[in-house]
Amino acid sequence: MKKEAKRIEAKGKFVFILFMFLLAFTMLFGKILYLKVVHGAEYSAEAKKQQINRYDTVTMPNRGNIVDRNEQLLAVSTTVYNVALDSIQLAEGEKESDNKARERTLTTLCEYFPELKYDTLKKYITKNPKTGEPYLNNHWKYLKKGVSRETTEKLKKEKLRGVYFEESSKRTYPLNELACHVIGFARGGASWGLEKYYADYMAGTPGRSFMLYQGADQVEYKNYKAKNGDTLVTTLDYNIQQLAEEVVNETQAEWPSENVAAIVMNPNTGEIYAMAESHAYDLNNPDEPLEAKTDATFEEVWNEMTTTEQMEYMNKTWRNFCVSDSFEPGSVYKPLVAAAGLEEGVITPNSTFVCNGVEVRGDKEMHCHLRSGHGSLNIQEIMAQSCNPGVIHIAERLGKEKFYEYQQEFGFGYKTGIDLPSEMDASGQLHSLEGIGPVELATMSFGQTFNCTAIQMITAFSSIINGGNMVRPHIVSQIIDADGNVVLQNNTEVVRKVISEETSAYMRTALKATVDHGLGKKIAIGGYSIGCKTGTAQQGSRKQDRLWTLTNMSYFPAENPQFIVFTIINKPFDYVDGLQTPAPMTKKLIEGIIKYKNMEPTQETENAKNLSKHQTVKIGDYIGSVIYDVAGDLDGKDLQYKVIGTGNTITNQVPKAGTEVDVGSEILLYVTKSEDESGTVGVPDVVGKSYAKAEKELKSSGFTVAFEGDRDGIVVSQEPKYGVSIEEGSEVILTMGEKETTTAKDKTNGNTTGRSDVKTEEVRTTTEVTESTQTTERKKTIKKQITGAEE
Fold first, then answer.
1. Do 724 and 682 form a contact (C-beta atoms < 8 A)?
2. 385 within 8 A of 518, measured Cβ to Cβ
3. pLDDT for res 274
4. How many CB atoms lie within 10 A of CB 513?
5. What would the 3-class secondary structure string for 189-224 be?
6. pLDDT attached to residue 290
């Protein structure tokens, strides 16, 4: 009985255990079924998401190019590649073939990219004995970014295990600082110029690259290519822009000022051919001021500045003065007053006014620049002599209501609509109609006590010489997509009619007198008819130190204007009345345009023949050629050249093939190394230097030097030529010739004064002290220019 009872008890326990097991299994199955039915879709999506877990990135498209009107590249984005390492994949496998594959990957990467350290890469794929996983347990580690397509293609052919390539984009500006304030840049959260205004067009459509893991071992790499952005075709002309920047920089160097600027525009269409400003910056390196590279004193001051001061300075540097800053225009405004008076019939071309040298309104005396007075002047002579009393009388005949109306019609206080960001309207710096009294009306007539921007002024002035039309200025003529389709066309846009063709025709002719015998005669060019108005305007509070803005508005040919040129010297630091003037820069710029465009003279003179029949040559197509052959061709055409990069193969040129340029012009040649040129070095340009300087420069570049001729002379030629890349340690042969001039020092064997050594040492000491004092003063001046405060 006891045995039977025990058997029944054991059986009962077994049944109970079985029941509990079945119950637990049923509950687990129910839970799984519940999760499958209720959360199945959610978990399935999450599982799929985790399959694409280790690498999923957006591939940025190449930003659209920016070109000038002749298709010269101003900004370009190129496809580059980021090289990445899958250390987990590379670490897998214990066979000898796996070890060889790992070793080959690491050594090859270090050969291509010397900055990578073999030991570091080896550590990445070494397995941690505690975890059994690589120390860098990662499927995607960037090793090198911004690798060229050429290098990437070579590396791809190596078929390295665990190495992957991601497409990216690099923005470059081939001409560095050219038109920097117009083109602007886009980087991080900051953007300026056309890069900002047309960002949506140039952005393109991103692509996507990711890895899809099928199971534990199978990896599928997916890459959906990006769509590149649209190309901006600008109205800029590279050659005219270069001319404008040249005269701006020369003027800034001669007369340091807060701003020096020049705009060249077609007055009939509003196309901007050039917009140049001092304080340029390198678009490829916008954070560093150019002055810091060339001026040791500036660099010293710059390094002493705080980060905040440096940022404030760079923000001012990036700012486009021509559209974003205002000034009192001065006498260049007078022709607009005359045009309004003629249009309203309150004056005629034969109207005369007497200038006694001063006009009194209220308690204010307003003088003419000729204090003794001009006497009786007609409208043409009031403009030519820039007579203040004469234009005051015209404004008073108009009355303040009509004066104010025309000021509005000419666009003052409103944006012109130019396709550049941050345009100022200066509306807060104009008088309201109610605020115009006798004194204000008088001062406004000669362009004082109100502000405008440079682009407002040139746009308004264009309307009085183009037939009376206010035309919207613009920088971009077309936007073209990757397939060549025009997605945006900026045609000439007449905003409104301001004056009649009859009034405009008179103003075009009348302003020629300013150049023929008036205050603008310094810009006269024999054989060419030019209209002009000069301007000098006091700025800011009249109680403080006097600040001035000097302007010149010129157009040509006067009878049928195709170009209007506005030059500005804004607030020169050491202003002397009658010394600083924009006339020289204006004349040089106009002469350059006449030569470049081969413009026919309106009347025969010897000077006109020289300008219109100057020597030009056509540039060949050098892309793909070897620099040595091209250098000889350029020398034969009397053209200068500058080599950018290292190597012997030319990849780009500026200007492009087929362009007509003046004899003596400089051509930019962009070069790169071919496969068999590793270890070569570009030969520097030492022509024109003394033997000592040439030898020092060549030896520092890794070459040996030999010479022919008089060692005391200067280098007249070199072989190999400048820019050619040759093996380091190669010999460069210099041909020496006589110096062009002989200094007094040469004639006296080093003693230029004939004084004793003691006396010479005294002079040297005095000179060093003077130079030290000058350096200190210059630092103070630079500090004031940068920060606006005394050191």
1. yes
2. yes
3. 98
4. 19
5. CEECHHHHHCHHHHHCECEEEEEEEECCCEEEEEEE
6. 87
272-277 vs 494-497, strand pairing mode:
unpaired
Q: At what angle do helices 149-157 and 96-112 cross, to 10 degrees?
A: 160
User: Residues in the chain, how many?
Assistant: 791
Using CB atoms within 10 A of its CB, is residue 527 exposed (0-12), middle (13-18) or buried (19+)?
buried
How open is the CA angle 346-347-352, to the nearest 5 degrees? 140
Q: What angle do CA 774, 775, 780 make, to 5 degrees?
A: 95
What is the torsion angle, in degrees rounded to the nearest 10, for the CA atoms of residue 320, residue 323, residue 327 and residue 328? 160
At 20 the pLDDT is: 73
Residue type, 621: D
Report pLDDT for 169.
82
Q: Residue 489's beta-bridge partner residues?
A: 478
Q: Residue 285 — left, alpha, or beta (φ > 0 → left; ψ -120 to 50 → alpha)?
A: beta
**What does the block give as tokens for 163?**
């190495």
DSSP 474-516: BSEEEEE-TTS-EEEE----EEEE-S-HHHHHHHHHHTHHHHH
Query: Judging by beta carbons within 10 Å of its beta carbon (0-12, 13-18, 19+), is residue 328 exposed, middle or buried?
Result: buried
Which pair of structure tokens corresponds to residue 385? 């002599």
Q: What is the DSSP letter of 126?
A: S
Beta carbons of 601 and 528 less than 8 angstroms apart = yes
DSSP states along 700-730: HTT-EEEEES-TTSEEEEEESPTT-EEETT-
Considering only CA atoms, which of 423, 68, 67, 494 is closest in space to residue 267? 494
CB 370 within 8 A of CB 424: no
CA 329-332-336 angle, 5° bins = 105
- Nearest Cα residue to 614 out of 633, 600, 603, 631: 600
In angstroms, how far is CA 743 from the centroid of its own chain?
41
Task: Name the DSSP class of 281.
Answer: B
Do residues 106 and 121 make contact, with C-beta atoms less than 8 angstroms apart? yes
Q: What is the DSSP string of 401-414?
A: HHHHHHHHHTTTTS
Does residue 633 sit in helix, strand or coil?
helix
CA 622/CA 652 separation, integer angstroms: 8
- Return the CA Rg of the chain: 37
Q: DSSP assignment, residue 171?
A: E
Phi, psi of 277 (to 5 degrees): -150, 150
Three-state SS for 129? coil
The residue ranges of the chain whose pLDDT is under 70 are: 1-16, 19, 29-56, 212-219, 542-545, 604-614, 675-679, 739-791
Residues 6+ apart with CB under 8 A from 662: 595, 596, 614, 615, 616
One-letter amino acid at 786 equals I
Between helix 238-254 and helix 583-597 the angle, nearest 10°, is 160
Residue at token pair 């960037």: 142
Cis peptide before 129 (omega within 30 of 0): no
